[in-house]
Design goal:
The chain is mainly alpha-helical and 176 residues long. It is built from eight helices and five strands; from the N terminus they run H-E-E-E-H-H-H-H-E-E-H-H-H.
Length: 176
């Protein structure tokens, strides 16, 4: 009798080498995740890409909390609660870890359509939706935090205060 383990191990190796499990190998030290500096309450990587900051007690930075709110206002209908995906659209929490920030911005802004024999998916363009575009960095940082499991499913229990800078930027973007 042969043992099934080699088949399972081979399948796992194929999934990993195809990139489907790539996010599992990402750590908090990854340059796309690690906080390099903070500016007015927003955290960035060395490359100037927005990232999240969750304190040891579970307090999330304001942009990540804002991203939770905006994701659930605009994105979860298709992509499922907490970035987990649905039968209709893929999980975004993993995409935010592996998709380049600028590619993420492009897809959200301009949309994307993939139609072929194996796939028929449409991501609408949100470039004119202020409820998305004014908070795109917040949504991105929330999804990165979810992908890293730095914030659990559901509304974050603790958050940093919304600074005056965020209020000013929000008012300017929303036309208030």
């Amino acid at each position: 009798m042969t043992r099934p383990f080699p088949l399972i191990a081979a399948a796992a190796l194929m999934l990993t080498s195809s990139g489907l499990c790539a996010a599992e190998n990402i750590t908090m030290d990854d340059p796309n995740i690690a906080v390099a500096y903070e500016e007015d309450g927003r955290y960035y990587t060395d490359d100037g890409v927005p990232t999240f900051n969750v304190k040891a007690d579970g307090t999330v930075d304001w942009p990540t909390f804002s991203g939770f709110r905006r994701y659930h206002a605009e994105c979860h209908v298709c992509h499922g609660p907490d970035g987990e995906g649905s039968t209709y659209a893929p999980a975004l929490k993993q995409s935010a870890l592996t998709l380049d920030y600028y590619d993420f911005l492009d897809v959200v802004t301009n949309g994307r359509q993939k139609v072929d024999a194996a796939e028929n998916s449409v991501m609408p363009a949100f470039g004119t939706n202020a409820n998305v575009m004014c908070y795109i960095d917040d949504i991105y940082t929330y999804l990165k935090a979810r992908g890293m499991e730095a914030v659990p499913r559901g509304r974050p229990a603790k958050k940093d205060r919304k600074s005056d800078v965020f209020v000013e930027n929000e008012n300017a973007c929303m036309g208030s």
